[in-house]
Amino acid sequence: MKEKVLINGIGRIGKSILIQLLQKKEYEIVIINEINPYIENIVYSINYDSTYGSLEDKFKVVEESYIQNSQTKIKITNHSSLFDLDLSDIDIIVDSSGVKTNIEKLRSLPVKAIFLTHPNIQADINLILGANENDLDKQKYKVISTSSCNATALLPALKIIDKEKKIICGDIVTIHPLLNHQRVLDGHFVGSSTRDVEYNFEFGRSSTQNIIPNKTTTIKACSFVDSKFNHELISSNSLRVPTDTVGAINVTLFVEKSCTKEGLIEIFKEYEKNQKFNIVLNNFDPLVSSDFKKEQKTTIIDHRYTDVKNEKMIKLLVWYDNEWGYASKVVDILDFYSNN
Ligand SMILES: NC(=O)c1ccc[n+]([C@@H]2O[C@H](COP(=O)([O-])OP(=O)(O)OC[C@H]3O[C@@H](n4cnc5c(N)ncnc54)[C@H](O)[C@@H]3O)[C@@H](O)[C@H]2O)c1
Q1: Which domains does the chain carry?
Q2: At which positions is NAD(+) bound (predicted)?
């Protein structure tokens, strides 16, 4: 039996999830709900993409409110609230709209599970593969947050190091591509109490003309998954840069047990060899951010920059595709949920 899916919000993340789910026979995308009222524009934005290229098997509009390609027919709805939708034919909702919704009310929806593509402390669980998948209890948990792209990339690396060397404290800087809530040229700041975007004057500044510093929610998102990895342990900030996708995290950690650069690389190689999910990729090649575009592994350790000072200070550079890579982890989480 296929899992019948509704995707809410078909922006950067919704679209990456849609395209990856379309490759899998275990899922049927029944509805896309999107507040964009122009179905021709929805189909256009699914078919063509400046970052990842255009779809081979293109969709077209049929019967006014459906889109169809050679494999699939999907109903398009335009409700601003999930509570206005007919969910009688839906098993799973993937909410990639970024809208903050009352979680108690979400639980009452007549579906098996609702996956939120943002960190949410009120969700039944914030889930990152390689960190806490064993805590997933399908009988108990209905609203499942798939955390953030940064936390999905960082937390597995922190846990690997903590297990072997015990982290005392540290600092991270995320270097993050543009997001759709930013402005192209200077304008009023963007942020709202109904979306998971921080109020931040700097995000009203031109995204293509600036490196924009901001307080990242990365460590907070990690703490929702594993409370040990919080702001008492690790400080953080972010630099938003004018690239389309693929982020990097510069990580500095102080640890209790002595280590060497070679020993650390060995630990990550061992993990990569034995991992259950597509998480760690060890890179030794002279690559740049765009080389990691569409990479499904989301904790890419660039060992050209792995370093140890005074046996107890570790430096790592971690890459991840914040759109396609993160979306692939959401799909892996759906698989994990469905198969357990
Ligand atoms: N872009 C990233 O790198 C990234 C990575 C991980 C997680 N996320 C999270 O995923 C979510 C979506 O981010 P995005 O970058 O895709 O944003 P986006 O702005 O590109 O897409 C959001 C889509 O949702 C639609 N939408 C807005 N309100 C809606 C509503 N009430 N009902 C239905 N649709 C609605 C918008 O029209 C838009 O098409 C956010 O929570 C974000 O924090 C983003």
Answers
A1: 3-117 (3.40.50.720), 150-322 (3.30.360.10)
A2: 12-13, 117, 322
